[in-house]
Each structure stands twice: as C-alpha cells, then as structure tokens.
Amino acid sequence: MNVEEIVDKVANGEIKLHQVEKYTNGDKKLATEIRRKALEKKLGVSLENIGHYSIDPNRLIGKNIENMIGVVQIPMGVAGPLRINGEYAKGEFYVPLATTEGALVASVNRGCSALTAAGGVKTTLIDDKMTRAPLLKCPDARRAREVAEWVKANLDYLQEKAVRKVTRHGKLRGVKPYIVGNNLYLRFEFETGDAMGMNMVTISSEEIMKVIEEEFPDVKYLALSGNLCVDKKPNAMNFINGRGKSIIAEAVIPREIVEEKLKTTPELIAEVNYRKNLVGSAQAGSYGFNAHFGNVVGAIFLATGQDEAQITEGSHGITLAEVTPEGDLYISVTMPSLEIGTVGGGTRVPTQREALSIMGVAGGGDPPGTNARKFAEIVAGAVLAGELSLLAAIAAKHLAKAHAALGR
C-alpha cells in the first residue's frame, strides 16, 4: 500500500492508530505523519502546527509516547541569573520555564534579581528517596504484622534476591509498613541516583512481591501500588514523610533591597504570607501553605521533561516569612515532595535535555545522584524567587497591574 491508501484505511478505521508502524516498515516518523493526516481527513481539521517539530519520533515512540501525531509547542522563557549557595548547586544559574501564563517568567525573574542581590539562596537537602507501596492481602492482622516484621529484618536479603536482579542503580534502603485489618501496605523507600526512579522502584517492588509470596504462601499480592506511595495525588503522606527530594531554600533579604526592588517592606510581606499562605490555606484545608509553588514547578517540569502529573506533589509545601531582629526579611520554602530526575523518562527528549543543559544538569552526575540533587536545589531556589515576587506584588498591590500589562 502507498501512503495515501494507509491514510484512508486509518481514517475509516480499517487500520487502528497503534497498528500504523506495521505498514511503514518500522519508520515511526512516517507513521506519525500518517496518523496526523488520517485525523485531519476524518475530523475535517488542520493540524499543520502540530506537525512542525524538530525531534525524531523514531527516538521517542515506544519509550516516551504512543500514537504520536506531532507535538504541542509551549513557549519557553528563562529567569535569572539566580545565585544558589547549595550543597550541590553553587554559583549563578538561568532557569528555563515553559508556560503560556503571561507575567510568570517576569515575576520569577524579579525574584531572582532580588535574591541574587541579597547574596543568593541557601539550599538544604533534607531527604532523597523514591517510594512504592504494594498491597498484600493476609489471612488476618497478626499474619500481616509477622510479614511486616520479616520484611523489615530482611532488607539486605531483598536487595540481593530481588532488586539487584532488575536494576544496577536502585537501592532498597527502608520500608514503612501500614496495616489496615488484614491488608498490609509496604511503603518501600529506594535510592535511585539521578533518575526520578518511578519505573525503577515499580519493577523492583514487583520482584520483592515474588519473594514475599514464596516466603509466605498464605499471603496474596494484590496491587503493585496500594496508594500509600503516594503518586500523583494530593496527600498528607508525602506532605509529612516526603517523597523524591525533600528540600528547603531560604534567604535573608536586606530591607533596602525589599524596598527598592520589590517596592514594599519586610513587615508587609511577612503579614501577607501569614494571613494568606498560612491562615488562608489552613481554612481551605490545603496541602500547599504557599502562594504558587505549582506555577514554578509546573513550568520547570514542562521545560525539562519531568512527569507533569507529579506537579501535584511538587505543589505541597510551606512558605515562611518573618522580619529579622535587624529589620530585614527572612523567607523560606520547604518542599517535602519534589520528584525529579536528570536521566530517563522525558529528560531524554532532545528539547528537554537542552533545557536541563542550561542549568548544567543534563544526564547523570558523578557520583550518581549529584545532578538530580543539584537540579532540586535550583528548582527550590526558583520556587523561592516566585514566592518572594508574588508576595511582594500582593503586598504592594501590584498583582492586578502586572497581569493587566503582561497577561492579557
């Protein structure tokens, strides 16, 4: 069949979308074009812009996407320079932000300017782990406790017997069991190097389940995720216990910089933060005691190939602001669940890899894990910049004016 014949058969349903590669001798770029043309024909629409791209479908289909028809292009801006005084990130960085929200990049850029003028952002990594929590059905609660105790006592055995079989980079470092009736949830904690690690810990956890079922024949493995992981949902578990990178970014900004660059005072920023981010969020029952973590996290995730659904947990966290005894502004962001990586997943897409290279974090670090941690410090610093700028805009009553000028 020629291309037009294949297009016709896809359009009328004789060939399914996922079957097109069978008719293109494995040419995934041609298959992408055929699917798009078939949709145009069937729906009577033009998909011209979706069809303009520079990335190679042959490198993506089967790893990052299925039924590919093209791309969505999101404008990307850059904020900075932002000085980071971290444990892994040291120096000035430019931060790529992919967004269609006018004023966001400008706002983060203003925050970067103020923080850098104040000497930079101090970042502290509190924890680094990826979790998966399989569900086991036990005969009763006592048996569930026995299984949990055995697992806690045999982590090294499970690492050798199960985890090492499927990954060279993952390390089982801990487990927290939860028992509800005869249900046993095992929240495993893994080290995953520079990868965000969800695939790694998922495959490893399934191998561990096989070992447990062999050891306890009366116990049934029901679900690879029992929803205590917790992945891609707002939740108290990750807010309290953390998942991915748990990190704090903080800075002290002299009063004169607050007044000159941000057009307000430390006192007003601290009061707005208290009444808006803390009291207002408490009244709303929010897991995000902050102004807009999700805005900055989302823009960086889209730019750098992170799992966009995990913006949910990246939005968890607390912004603090207070006036120091010297009359300056102390401000910090605490992010308990920043799930990011610099290898694997969407980070292998060329455009996203280029965005990571802007920050000097593309690919694996030496030693493993250092690039992802450096990236986490830069993200936390950018989030702090976004919080500072937005709080200042609200305190100075400039928010509506900025959006009228840049967002309409």
UniProtKB/TrEMBL annotation:
Pathway: Metabolic intermediate biosynthesis; (R)-mevalonate biosynthesis; (R)-mevalonate from acetyl-CoA: step 3/3. GO terms for biological process: coenzyme A metabolic process; isoprenoid biosynthetic process; sterol biosynthetic process. It catalyses: (R)-mevalonate + 2 NADP(+) + CoA = (3S)-3-hydroxy-3-methylglutaryl-CoA + 2 NADPH + 2 H(+). Pfam families: HMG-CoA_red. GO terms for molecular function: hydroxymethylglutaryl-CoA reductase (NADPH) activity. Belongs to the HMG-CoA reductase family. Keywords: NADP, Oxidoreductase. InterPro entries: HMG_CoA_Rdtase, HMG_CoA_Rdtase_cat_sf, HMG_CoA_Rdtase_CS, HMG_CoA_Rdtase_eu_arc, HMG_CoA_Rdtase_N, HMG_CoA_Rdtase_NAD(P)-bd_sf, HMG_CoA_Rdtase_sub-bd_dom_sf. This is 3-hydroxy-3-methylglutaryl coenzyme A reductase. The keyword NADP applies. The keyword NADP applies. CDD domains: HMG-CoA_reductase_classI (cd00643). The lineage of its organism: Archaea, Methanobacteriati, Methanobacteriota, Thermococci, Thermococcales. Coiled coil: none annotated. It comes from the Archaea. Its EC number is 1.1.1.34.
